[in-house]
Amino acid sequence: MSLIIYVAHSGNRIVAEPTKVNSLESLRAWVQRTAQIPVNKQVFLTSKGKAVRPQTLLTEPEIYVFDSNSFSPTNTSLSLIPDPSPLNPDTPPDSIANHDQLSSWNDLFCRRLDWARALRVQYADLVQSTQRYHQEQAIIQQSVNVAVMSLHLHIRSTEQKYQHEEEWVDKLLTQQEAHVDSWERDLDILQHIPAKPDFARYIQSQTAIPMQQSSHESEVTLQQFVQVDHVKQAASSAQNIMTSFAQRVHNIQQSLETTAKDSDALLEAVQTVHLSRVDNTDEPAKLLEEVDIIVNKMSNDLEHVGSLSNNAQNDARASKMALLHTRNYLPNLDGLCLELNSLVRQTIQQRNNAAQNFLHHMQTLSNIESRLAQVHSSLKTLNMSQSDEQVFDTLNVLSKLPFVYGSLMIEAVRRREWADKMKSDSATLAEEMATYQEEEERRRTKWLKSVDDVVKTEAFEGRPLSVEVNLQADDLEWPVVQRQSLQNYIQTLTELEFPNSVVQTLSTALKDLDRPTKKQIKHAKTFKNGSMHEAAFGTTSLMLRGEDEYKVLREANTKLEEELKGQKSRVRRLEDILHRHAHMNRPTTGDSFRPSIELVSEMVSPSPSSPRPSEELIRQTVGSRRPSSSLAAEEGKLARRVVALEAELHAAKEHASNLEKDAESRKQKDADGQREIDEAVSTKKDIMQNMEAQQREFADERRVLEQD
Q: Does the keyword Coiled coil apply (predicted)?
């Protein structure tokens, strides 16, 4: 497919072969040779106003090329077309040798037809030129539209970037304004929060308190961690910085709005010119059709006269036809020439006006683009200076220092406890490994005694492998902080009505000191589920004393023991009730020698044939003995209690069974889900590999096409 290139300033249309312009560099060189536009002055745009990219060059059907010299405000050169010489036809032949001879009339008709045909050739050339002028005018006007579309795309992109920057600026100014408004309150809060002077060395140098100043003071607060004079100076200059920064943003906004308005005005002017243009591109062709009609009539009349016989009647008929040509056809041809001359002048004027408008609009567009570039550059550099940032950082420290100090205290506790744990675990590890070493030494000695009468004892001298545990660290010495100090600090923040989010965060961090890590929880859950495999349990088989990994196991074991105690208590209560009930039934007749355990079994496990065996047993018991009224009532209560306990025990068993089934079902679902995830990941990898292979194939094909 051929590539059509439109030269914007001249309206020329050039067709290029794709094999000659398969890259931007070759296209620029080809345009320089064809359109005489320097390479460094060429601007390529698509029909949608977008810049031409090397990736889509081969897929573009048409490209508009602009000469950046035409954008210059000092440029006055125009690609204008001068008015051509008007078409003035010669006087048509009108002389005849003999009015009474038909051959003379035939000769006149022949000379007039030759004259008309020669005029028609000149007419056609002029019509073709007129159509070319129309085409150039359309290309010039469309080029302006494309350039304006490109401008609107740039403005839209800049507006989006401005909106993004505006959101950031609004958020920044709101945050800094809050710091400016609350710095006095924050400074007063710091005065009421006690602190350890040892933590001052962890604060930034510009706000740190000197250690020699704090060492002799009895009580230190967080306010002494900052330089009050420096804070007051920052607060006085912060408002001016915010005002200046907001003014910069406002100026950028005004420039962008002015640029957008000028762009809209330019678009409206371009559309107005486009709509006001008279669409007379078909007029030259219509005039040429009328000329062809007249020439065809004259040709037909010549053929008709040539077919007549030579007599007086035919002479008269030929004379009338010649008179018709003289009065109608020939004057009509002259009139059509005048119309065409007027149309040519009008077309050239419209084309030249389009070129002038092009120069004016492109210079306006260039001015807008330059201002837009300034706005874009201002947006890129829309940042605070380092000194301004230091001012706001100083105010920000006031509100953030209580949280940072609390985090430092928690970190000190965590590091100290972790170091203690490492020391304890390393000592335990060394002790256990020493035990292994002693056991191996005793085993070797015992074995050597059994074979010392045969082997050389000195050949087996040596000690078993030993392990030496060394703790190495380049960590800093943190101040000693107790957990009670952390709790007191959080309580102080609560009493000072510090933001609840900060207090809650510190409280959560304090609770997390006792929380096992994810790896420890995973190991504990693996062991709890019954897996004793070392690979599943962890990376070591040593169970160090006091290891945090087993806190979860101990907690779970405690819960299980409590549940077991509750279940045992319930069982004891059931046994006690059943025992007392069986003891009360011993004097009854017929069952004097039955063991009490059988009675208990009979009460706990009723006969399947009876829907309510306990109540039937109650009726038998009541009928077989001579109870008093109070004893019968107590017996009924006990029997109902037994039934209730049986139902409760049965419900508990069903609940436990349901829980086991639910756990098994969830485990199966998790396994199925993991299998589906593995399959999805495998499918995704295959798809990505296929896409990468296709991409490599496309790259190879494109490289081959570029080389061709």
A: yes
